[in-house]
Specification:
Layout lengths: L2 H26 L4 H16 L3 E14 L18 E17 L5 E12 L2 E12 L6 E9 L20 H6 L4 E9 L11 E8 L15 E12 L6 E14 L5 E5 L6 E4 L9 E16 L4 E15 L22 E16 L5 E11 L20 E13 L2 E12 L15 E9 L1
Parallel strand pairs: 10-14
Antiparallel strand pairs: 1-2, 1-18, 2-3, 3-4, 4-5, 5-6, 6-7, 7-8, 8-9, 9-12, 10-11, 12-13, 13-14, 14-15, 15-16, 16-17, 17-18
Helix pairs in contact: 1-2
């Protein structure tokens, strides 16, 4: 149930009862000024917050790992010696407050969302949006919000069919959000010639929620050009997609920057001997394309999704994740150096309702190659786990009891390439079973 639909009638009854009291008081000659004042205040409060919407969801789950203490991109690594666990993956509560012009056009939107689990409470969204109403064509968003890049990063965890985003999405843009401002071109009038497209252009700090604040002063530019669902046939088959770009970097506070080089048969990291100058950046540049095709069935639909991302990522020797802190020789002389890698990755979904919108089969395949310039048995020390390609296969079943409750049964098989690195000469046993229930309101 929408809480707004519940709160408003209750509030109206409450205010009505208070309004009735002064009337009865008048009839008996005992009019109370405090009662009248209270009624007026509550009536104003009701009008003020009638545009407030409250929503949320909670995702309790149980997981069983193939190996005790294994690494996992589904809710974090298992503790040493542990091969099963209960947890609350997400517990979200979101407040949306909108204002409207006298003719009913939306002018402002304010959003606050936080995530509460057994690991603590964190802010997930905290932003405001202004809609221009002269042309109904632009809006501006500022604050903490999701980066406008690709499909999976922007797809809500409450709606996503797989328990988690892919390995690549998590490493490149963990928590998906960043602090910044964004201009959006999106026609809101039904007959506008640009109704079919959406263009987002934003300026962001860069590190996102992996860091408490921006650490280099450089701002990253993110853009996404989206085509809204287009009907292909009279049967209702639709297609949609987008192209995204990320132009950013990480400030170089150190001469310790490594790039891939060496002979073709023995590729290795080579130190970049360029002397650091003020404002110089180590690259963080991505290009992505995504597409979604939906085919309606008698009950439900069949859907195919695909997204491919490639580019350059700067991180450190032991991880390709965007760093939360920067090695600075002034404050940490022995800090780890920066490593720049050329990467690519993709994911593919197949979704199929099983004779009813309550039952759905999900198949997913994704890969992430953090270092395209080395592969297989070429991967030897001093290269690390951060350079290993992973292919992940997932299969799941979703039972949607109703719009407020669903259960997910998901089995995931990550496969790492065989390398010359210790512990990764063959595939590591790290399959994972996830059983999740989602309560949503």
């Amino acid at each position: 149930m929408n809480p707004k639909s519940f709160i408003k009638p209750v509030a109206i009854l409450f205010v009505s009862s208070l309004c009735l009291n002064p009337i009865l008081a008048q009839q008996t000659g005992n009019l109370s000024e405090s009662q009248i004042d209270t009624t007026r205040r509550l009536s104003g409060l009701l009008r003020k917050y009638e545009s407030l919407n409250i929503s949320g969801y909670i995702q309790p789950q149980f997981q069983v790992s193939q190996t005790a203490g294994q690494q996992s991109f589904n809710g974090g690594d298992f503790a040493p010696g542990v091969d099963s666990r209960f947890s609350v993956r997400r517990g979200r509560l979101r407040f949306d407050y909108a204002t409207y012009s006298p003719n009913g056009e939306q002018t402002l939107l304010f959003v606050f969302q936080f995530d509460g689990t057994e690991r603590g409470v964190q802010t997930r969204d905290f932003w405001g949006r202004y809609y221009e109403t002269k042309y109904d064509l632009f809006h501006i968003t500022a604050g903490l919000f999701a980066r406008p890049f690709g499909f999976e990063i922007n797809y809500s965890s409450a709606d996503r069919e797989s328990p988690e985003r892919g390995r690549m999405s998590q490493l490149l843009m963990r928590t998906e959000r960043d602090l910044g401002a964004m201009l959006t071109l999106e026609a809101r009038r039904k007959n506008h010639p640009l109704r079919w497209l959406k263009l987002d252009l934003g300026l962001f700090n860069g590190p996102g929620l992996t860091s408490l604040s921006d650490y280099d002063g450089h701002k990253d530019v993110i853009a996404r050009f989206s085509v809204k669902p287009q009907r292909l046939t009279n049967a209702g088959i639709t297609i949609t997609g987008s192209v995204s770009g990320y132009w950013g970097g990480i400030g170089r506070f150190t001469n310790e920057l490594y790039r891939m080089g060496g002979p073709a048969d023995v590729p290795r990291f080579v130190r970049d001997s360029t002397v650091v100058s003020t404002g110089q950046l180590a690259p963080r540049r991505y290009t992505g394309v995504d597409v979604q095709l939906r085919i309606p069935n008698r009950k439900g639909f069949t859907e195919f999704r695909a997204e491919y991302i490639t580019g350059w990522q700067t991180a450190n020797a032991n991880s390709s994740e965007t760093p939360g802190t920067i090695p600075n020789p002034l404050s940490t002389p022995n800090a780890a150096p920066l490593y720049t890698r050329r990467f690519d990755g993709a994911y593919f979904y197949f979704l199929q309702h099983l004779g009813s919108t309550n039952h759905q089969l999900v198949l997913k395949y994704d890969w992430y190659d953090p270092n395209k310039q080395v592969a297989g048995k070429q991967l030897a020390a001093p290269l690390t786990w951060a350079d290993i390609r992973y292919d992940t296969f997932g299969i799941g079943y979703i039972y949607a009891v109703n719009s407020n409750l669903k259960t997910v049964l998901w089995y995931e098989i990550p496969v790492n390439e065989a390398t010359s690195l210790n512990s990764y000469q063959t595939d590591t046993p790290d399959n994972l079973l996830t059983i999740r229930t989602q309560y949503r309101f």
